[in-house]
TrEMBL record, chains A, B, C, D, E, F, G:
Pfam families: Cpn10 (PF00166). Heptamer of 7 subunits arranged in a ring. Interacts with the chaperonin GroEL. This is Co-chaperonin GroES. SUPFAM superfamilies: GroES-like. PROSITE patterns: CHAPERONINS_CPN10 (PS00681). The keyword NADP does not apply. The gene is groES.
Amino acid sequence: MLQPIGDRVIIEVEDQPEETVGGIVLADNAKEKPTQGKVVAVGAGRVLDSGERVAPVVQEGDNVMFDKYAGTKVNYADQEYLVMHENDLLAIVK
Amino acid sequence: MLQPIGDRVIIEVEDQPEETVGGIVLADNAKEKPTQGKVVAVGAGRVLDSGERVAPVVQEGDNVMFDKYAGTKVNYADQEYLVMHENDLLAIVK
Amino acid sequence: MLQPIGDRVIIEVEDQPEETVGGIVLADNAKEKPTQGKVVAVGAGRVLDSGERVAPVVQEGDNVMFDKYAGTKVNYADQEYLVMHENDLLAIVK
Amino acid sequence: MLQPIGDRVIIEVEDQPEETVGGIVLADNAKEKPTQGKVVAVGAGRVLDSGERVAPVVQEGDNVMFDKYAGTKVNYADQEYLVMHENDLLAIVK
Amino acid sequence: MLQPIGDRVIIEVEDQPEETVGGIVLADNAKEKPTQGKVVAVGAGRVLDSGERVAPVVQEGDNVMFDKYAGTKVNYADQEYLVMHENDLLAIVK
Amino acid sequence: MLQPIGDRVIIEVEDQPEETVGGIVLADNAKEKPTQGKVVAVGAGRVLDSGERVAPVVQEGDNVMFDKYAGTKVNYADQEYLVMHENDLLAIVK
Amino acid sequence: MLQPIGDRVIIEVEDQPEETVGGIVLADNAKEKPTQGKVVAVGAGRVLDSGERVAPVVQEGDNVMFDKYAGTKVNYADQEYLVMHENDLLAIVK
């Protein structure tokens, strides 16, 4: 299990259907980077200068949108995840 | 439904009339980027260092102006929206 | 009506007399950018980290000076305005 | 009259004697930029995050030194002034 | 023993199996930089503006993930370690 | 007299002995920039966000060390001084 | 004696054995920059926005590690020292 640090969340990126151009399957690096995924773990939250910790608003299982350049890729148990700060999330898809 | 995170708002950009130059319809990337739209969702607001959350001043349904480079485009239910921080809005059109 | 967000003000730029060089009227982009105007709307003010909102010191109707690169141009009701943060104003002309 | 905004001060730059090199008067842009002047107006001061306003320490009439790149030039009533943040002043000349 | 300063942690990087390409062992600088390791020492934590010290959440012995560009390499007792700010850690592997 | 603003100090730079290379006196711009001097005036100190003013720790007459790129040169009464923020001083020489 | 300002520490860099490549002593600028040394003086500490001063955690005599680009070289009494902010230290070697 991965436990994100601070205000980070871990996101399982949605499988994207294979993209084809005129029947030809595109190479991985020719695909659009994903911008949607499912939150699989949430950190304890950011510590304010007042010493208070701000509880994250997203929760495990939330579907979220993010900028395609947000986050850091990590591999865990043969699966790829994105780790990003909660504030890099744009919106929860409900 | 999209629920914006923190101090973000989601904006439905106004349809712009097709631009033509001498009767020729311009390609999409030759159009001016939009700078006005309607707020369709508002986040819970920014958390101050004091721990207090600042309620946004814009509301669902407000018509707003923004800089043409503000925000991130997202697609949801076959419609394009802009997600931006409330502070990137310039003014409410009343 | 335009209601500026946060600590922004909306400024109606002074009409500048047509500039001529040896009797030839200069093109728009050869004119000096304006640095003076009249405040037509004032936002509610900036929120401090303490949660307090700082009331702006400029008021509707004030004549103000600003740097020629300050602000964002917006069009409203066929008139051009500048929107800028109150702190980008240099001085009130009394 | 010019009333500076926030922690700004307005400075009347000292007249500099015409500079000559071997009897030839130098063009304006070949002169050293001024670094000394007289404060002619003082803003209400900067607002701290605590909401408190810090009264400026310089006063109208003070002779001050500043970096030659500090401030913004403004014209008012056919005279040129410099507007700068109080904190860009280096020292009061007593 | 190394005692990290402030909010820093010291990480023993995991031994990575020798990488070979077609039977040829890769030179050190052709290997991927490690992104996982074990925390061997934890600093006292960051001091907030309120004067409070935030106790780190990672502990000695935790397995952690980090960005491959995070931290500074140090040598101690013939072993190489990474020193980084706790906030540069992405997640604890549990 | 020069009264520095805020957390600034005024430093009289130590006379440096003429540098010669093989008996040839070096031009001014070939000399090392000074890094030591005597504090001749001290500002009232920096104002914190809490509104409190931090009294400077250096005092008139202190010999101090600073980085060779720190500070701004000013001329006063035919003498050259350096004005810099107290925090740009490295150490007091006792 | 050198008394560092604020949160600075003064470090006596460890003598490094002469480096030779194939019996040839390397010139000074071909040596690795030192990353370890002994603290010889400690400043009073950094002042927080709350007005509180944070006492440094390192003490005179501590052996410390630092990044090879940290600090400013100063000469005092014919010996070279490094002056750096306490927060640029990586770890205390115990």
